[in-house]
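Same chain as my last thread, 165 residues:
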Amino acid sequence: MKWRGLENSIKSLNFEHMSRTVILYGIGLALLMVALKSIEYRYMLRDLSMEFYVTLVALLFTGIGLWVGIKLRNKTVVQPINTNTVEVENKAVPKDQLLARIGISQREFEVLELIAEGCTNQEIADRLFISLNTVKTHSSNLFAKLDVKRRTQAVQRAKELTLLG
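reply #2:
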């Protein structure tokens, strides 16, 4: 039970996508190096003006900038489907029962309320008289149970589930 949050965090890291991106950038830099070296060689053989090479490099970086911009703009975010969520529509469900269904403990809920108030981890630890590491553990457990990655997402998800007002 203690390691569930850690396992979910490890699963959420997409190492395959990250390594593919690193390899693509490495290949791109290698091709750029080959192109620049061939230009340097051609520059020694032919006496072309410096403006030609500056223009060529500027066009190359403009093309790379456009490609990266298009890739970032067209990036789609895939939201995982969470089968553990509780959808409450116009039903008066007691908060304790709702917390039990989601699997959030009372102490985790107290931490969630303080996160919603905008408290830092240290402020939460001081208010609840617990250690900073305990606050971090409760927070990561909350993130796993609510299927979120950030504090703001946790507050938003709790409001969607009517845990917070």
